[in-house]
Design goal:
Blueprint (H helix, E strand, L loop, with lengths): L11 H13 L2 H13 L6 E6 L3 H12 L3 E6 L7 H9 L4 E3 L6 H12 L5 E4 L3 H8 L10 E4 L2 H12 L6 E4 L4 H24 L7 E5 L3 H12 L3 E5 L3 H9 L3 E2 L2 H7 L2 E4 L9 H4 L7 E4 L9 H7 L2 E6 L2 E5 L5 E5 L5 H4 L6 H21 L6 E3 L3 H14 L9 H8 L6
Helix pairs in contact: 1-3, 1-4, 2-3, 2-15, 3-15, 8-9, 8-15, 15-16
C-alpha cells in the first residue's frame, strides 16, 4: 500500500525517537511483536484503523505489520495527532497515514475515507466513526470485511445500538470491555492523563478546589480517585443509581448537575453522551470555572450553547478559551471540548496502553483465524487473551502469583466436598 497525508516528513527523526521512548514502556506489546514476526498471523491482510495517531498507537501498528498486515491509519481526533509520529510511521515504518494535527472536520472524514480506500479485511476503530462510514457511505467494502475491533466505551455503545437494529454487517470485538482495558486503561490511564491535561492547559492548583465529574464509570472513577489524591473535593453526577451508590460509598458527594454546577471550580465529563453540561448549567457556574471533556467526542459540553451565551471569546492559553458571559463571569473551555487528556497532554502513559494495544493486536490475530465462526454483531474478547495479557504484564513487572495445588483445584471443581 502507498499514499499518505501528513504535515511534515522532515519530522521523521524526532518521531522515531518518541516512538522508541514509548516502546521502552510497552514490554507486553513488544513481546507480541516478536511473536508475530515469527508466526505471521496476519499474513496478506489489509488493516484500516481510525485511532489517535500517537507514539503508543505507532507501536501497535508496527506490531500488526510484524504479523504480516499492511496498515493504513486515519486520526480519530484531529487535536491528538502527533505530526512527528505520523512522519515516522510513513517514512520509517511504511504505514499509510492520513493525519495532520488540527485539521477541520471535512479533512477528518476525507482521511477516514482515504484509509478505507485500501479495501481492508480488518478494521481497528476508536469511537465507531470508521465502522459508521462503512455502513453508510462505503457499503461496497462490506463484503470484504472479516471483522473489527473497537477501543472505546463510546464506540461499543454505538455498536450495540447497531446490532440491536440489525444494522451491523460484520463481527466486531469489544476490546474496550476486557478487564485489562477497563480496569487499567480507563481507570488509571484516563485518571492520570485527564488531570495532566487540565494542569498543563491551566496551571491550576487542584488542591482545595471542587472538581465535578460527570459519570462514574471506569473513566470517571479514575479521574475521581486522582483528583481526591491531589486534594480536591470531588462531586459526582450520575444517571445510574448503582454507580451513584458506589460513588457515595467510596466517600464522594453525589448530586445532580443542576446543583453541582453552582459549586464546581473544575468540571470533567466522562459519560459518552451529549449535552451533559449545557446552557442552564453555564448560567449558574462560578466565575472562572474550568470545563474539560474526557469522554471521547466533543459533544459532552454543549459548546454551541456556550458560544450563544457568550459576549466575547478569547484564547487565554494554548488549549484554553475564555468565554465571557453578559454578567461578566468567565468560563474557561479546554481543548474546544475535545479530549483534554490527548489535546492538552499526551494521552495515557505508554505503560497503560501496553495492555490495551496488546489486546488489540492479539484480538486482530484471533479474528483472522476465527472470523468464519463469528456472526455479525458485537463479541467479547476471549477470556484467555485477557489472562495472557495480564500474565505477560506481571512478568514484565517481575511479579509472581500463586498456582492452585491439586487439592485446591479438586475442591473448587467438586460439590461433593461440602464445607
Amino acid at each position: 500500500m502507498s499514499g499518505h497525508d501528513i504535515a511534515d516528513p522532515g519530522l521523521c527523526e524526532a518521531g522515531v525517537r518518541r516512538i522508541g521512548w514509548a516502546d521502552r514502556s510497552m514490554p507486553v506489546l513488544r513481546s507480541i511483536r516478536e511473536r508475530f514476526a515469527a508466526e505471521r498471523p496476519l499474513e496478506g491482510l489489509r488493516v484500516a484503523a481510525c485511532m489517535h495517531v500517537t507514539t503508543e498507537t505507532a507501536n501497535l501498528l508496527r506490531t500488526l505489520q510484524a504479523g504480516g498486515a499492511s496498515v493504513a491509519v486515519a486520526a480519530s481526533n484531529p487535536l491528538s495527532t502527533q505530526d512527528d509520529t505520523a512522519a515516522a510511521l510513513v517514512a520509517e515504518y511504511g504505514v499509510s497515514v492520513f493525519a495532520r494535527s488540527g485539521v477541520d472536520m471535512e479533512t477528518y472524514y476525507r482521511h477516514i475515507h482515504a484509509a478505507l480506500d485500501v479495501s481492508p479485511h480488518l478494521v481497528v476503530d476508536d469511537g465507531c466513526d470508521l465502522v459508521n462510514i462503512l455502513h453508510t457511505e462505503r457499503v461496497d467494502l462490506l463484503p470484504g470485511l472479516l471483522g473489527g475491533c473497537e477501543e472505546t466505551t463510546t464506540g461499543v455503545i454505538r455498536l450495540h445500538q447497531m446490532a440491536r437494529e440489525g444494522a451491523l454487517r460484520f463481527p466486531v470485538v469489544a476490546v474496550n470491555d476486557t478487564a485489562t482495558k477497563r480496569l487499567f486503561d480507563n481507570r488509571y490511564g484516563t485518571g492520570q492523563s485527564t488531570l495532566d491535561g487540565i494542569m498543563r492547559a491551566t496551571n491550576t492548583l487542584l488542591a482545595g478546589k471542587t472538581v465535578v465529574i460527570a459519570g462514574f464509570g471506569y473513566c470517571g472513577r479514575g479521574v475521581a480517585e486522582r483528583a481526591r489524591g491531589l486534594g480536591a473535593l470531588v462531586v459526582i453526577t450520575e444517571i445510574d443509581p448503582v454507580k451513584a451508590l458506589e460513588a457515595l460509598l467510596q466517600g464522594f458527594r453525589v448530586e445532580p448537575m443542576a446543583s453541582a454546577a453552582r459549586q464546581g471550580d473544575v468540571f470533567v465529563t466522562t459519560t459518552g453522551n451529549r449535552d451533559v453540561i449545557r446552557a442552564e448549567h453555564f448560567e449558574v457556574m462560578k466565575d472562572g470555572a474550568i470545563l474539560a471533556n474526557s469522554g471521547h467526542f466533543d459533544v459532552e459540553v454543549d459548546v454551541r450553547a456556550l458560544e450563544e451565551l457568550a459576549v466575547d471569546v478569547q484564547r487565554v492559553r494554548p488549549q484554553a478559551d475564555e468565554y465571557v458571559l453578559p454578567d461578566g463571569r468567565r468560563l474557561v473551555l479546554l481543548c474546544e471540548g475535545r479530549l483534554v487528556n490527548l489535546a492538552a497532554a499526551e494521552g495515557h502513559p505508554a505503560a497503560v496502553m501496553d495492555m490495551s494495544f496488546a489486546g488489540q493486536a492479539l484480538t486482530c490475530a484471533w479474528l483472522a483465524g476465527h472470523h468464519e465462526a463469528l456472526p455479525p454483531g458485537v463479541h467479547d474478547v476471549p477470556a484467555e487473551i485477557d489472562s495472557e495479557i495480564a500474565r505477560l504484564k506481571l512478568r514484565s513487572m517481575s511479579a509472581e502469583i500463586d498456582v492452585l495445588t491439586p487439592d485446591q483445584e479438586e475442591y473448587l471443581s467438586s460439590w461433593r466436598s461440602g464445607s
